[in-house]
Structure formats: C-alpha cells, structure tokens
Amino acid sequence: MMDDQSINDTNGTCTNLYDHRPVARVLMPLHYAIVCVVGLFGNALALHVIRPNLRKMNSTTLYSANLVVSDILFAFSLPLRVVYYALGFHWPLGEFACKATALVFYINTYAGVNFMTCLSVDRFIAVVLPLRLARYRKIQRVKWVCVAVWLLVLAQTLPLLSMPMTHKEPDGHITCMEYPNFDRVPNISVILIGAVFLGYGLPVVIILVCYSCLCSKLRLLAKTNHLTEKSGRNKKAIGVIFCVILVFVVCYTPYHIDLLQYMVRKLRYEPDCSEQHTFQISLHATVCLMNLNSCLDPFIYFFACKGYKKKVMKLLRRQVSMSFSSAVRTSPEESSRDLDHNKIHLNSRNEQR
Q1: Model pTM score
Q2: Which GO terms describe its molecular function (predicted)?
Q3: 319 Cα distance to chain centroid
Q4: 172: phi > 0 → left, psi -120 to 50 → alpha, else beta; which?
C-alpha cells in the first residue's frame, strides 16, 4: 500500500486527490449531460404549463414558478461543468468564469431547496390551518417571500466570490470549484458546518414536519368523509407527498452528511492524503446525486399536476401522429415506384417474347 510520503509533493500537498480522473471524465460528463437535457426540457415544459395560470396566480403557482425557474437556471450552468469534467478536472477559462459558474450553480441549488420548503409550508397552511394562517398565502406576501428567498440564497453564496475557486495542480491541471481549493480558507470547517445546518438541516426538518402533519390531516379527512376515501384522491395526494420527500431526502442527504462528517473530523485532526482522496471521490458522487434532483422534479409534476400530464401526453400524441402521417405519405410513393418497376419488368419480358 502506498504511504503518505509517496503521494505528497515537495510542498507537502497531496497529489492523489484526482487519481479517479480516468473514470470521472467519462461518467460525470455523461451524468451532467443527461441532467441538463432532461432538466431543461422537463422544467421548460413545466413553465409552459404554469404560464397561463400566472394571470390567476395563487401562492402555490408562484412558488412552483420560482422553483421551475431555479431548476432551468441550474441546467444552464451545467454545459461548462460537462466540459470541465470531460477535460479531466481541467478549467481553461480563468478564475472569473469559474466564480461566475459556481455562483449560478450554488444559488440555484439552494434556491430549489428553499422553494421546496416554501411549497411544503404553503400546502401545510392550505390543508391543516386554512383559516388561522390564510393571510400568509395572500399573493402580495408570497411575492415578498420569494424575493426574500432569492436574497437569502444570494447572501449565502456571495462569500464564494472572496474565496479562491481555481488551483493549478502539480500535474498542470487547473481545477475549479473543488473542495481542496477552499481548504486554505480560515475556519472553513466551521463555515461549512453552519452552511449544512442552515442550507439543509433546517429545510429538511420543516419539510418533514409540514408533510407529516399534512398526511395526518388527509388520513383524518378520508376517515370522516367516505366520498373522498372512495375517490382515492387523498391516497394519491399522500403518494405524491411521499415521492417529494423521498426525492428530496435521497438527493440531498448523502452530500450534506458526507460534508458534515468530514468537517467534524477536520476539526479534530488533519486528515491524511488517503482520507482526503476518499472524501474527494465521495464528494463528486454525492454532488452528482444532489444535482439529479433538478431533473427528477418534472417527473413529480407529471404525477402531481393534471395540466402537466395532459401537456406531456398531448406532445407525445402529436409526435406519434406526425410520425404516422409521414409514414403514410411516403408509403403510396413507394408503392407507385414498386408498381412502375413491375410494369417496366413485364413490358421488357413481353418485348423479349
């Protein structure tokens, strides 16, 4: 087994942090390309469905529109990341471009988290406390909440601009937006632990509490009203809630737990090169999983929103219809060609006789 001295350069920094480059430069660009295409198409379609409802806007529509916009903006930040990973963790565009893409990347990641939290609170108020807290669902208040969310996320991510984003590795590769580039920032462990609790811990508690209360209320309504129980609407609603929670927890939890455990260890002692390399691999894997959320949201819209499902099915039917009609148009031409060919063949045979 390789000892620490063999994976340190003369300055005492680890040189094995990107040893997984050959695998990562294939899998990570493929992953982000799929996330970008599916996320862009699915969320653009969701925005198209939401747009007619903006005139008769309610709190849920406004939160959903902001969530969709954050997912679309996030998808626009991915092509440069695809190029970066395809080049084997090499960023040729300079520090400014790296900081700009990092800002867009993180702003829209955590804007999505916060708007999902807002949606859970909004649904909780609508179903559990519709009379007592109805004033908080008024559109003017919700607009200010959306502005506050964007400002909060901006305040959380703007400090990134003061941190070094790029770093030239001993092998000549210039990395961008990688954790080792932040490692020299004073008190980085404390900063990131605070970011985990504020950016993930608080939202996940709010989401779980709100949706748990919402499910309890829906079950209670189903027991007291046999018509709703027979229609199965409450079961469907509970199923959608379960999917929302599952997607959120599965996508966001591994990354934040991974980051938290490493920062806690870093406060106790300085991890060796082997531990740093393991963390770097796990960080890349969990960030990929976290970013998968932006292209999974449209699938939740498909099952939760009738308008979205109708629009998708309409597009699919139109595509099938166009394919069928083009096939029908080409088939008579082919048949006539075959007929003409047979006539020529018969005439030539008759002439020979």
Answers
A1: 0.80
A2: G protein-coupled receptor activity
A3: 27
A4: left
Contacts of 67 (CB under 8 A, 6+ apart): 112, 115, 116, 119, 297
pLDDT tens across 77-96, in order? 899 999 999 999 999 999 99
Q: Report the largest interatomic distance among the alpha carbons of the chain, rounded to a whole angstrom.
A: 101
- What pairs with residue 195 in β-bridges? none
Residue type, 265: R
| Residues 6+ positions from 62 with CB-CB distance below 8 Å | 139, 142, 143, 146
Cβ neighbors of 108 (< 8 A, separation 6 or more) are 70, 71, 73, 74, 77
Q: Quote the tokens at residue 312.
A: 């998708």
CB 101 within 8 A of CB 63: no
What is the CATH topology of the domain spanning 19-306? Rhopdopsin 7-helix transmembrane proteins (1.20.1070)
For residue 35, how far is the Cα from the chain centroid? 7
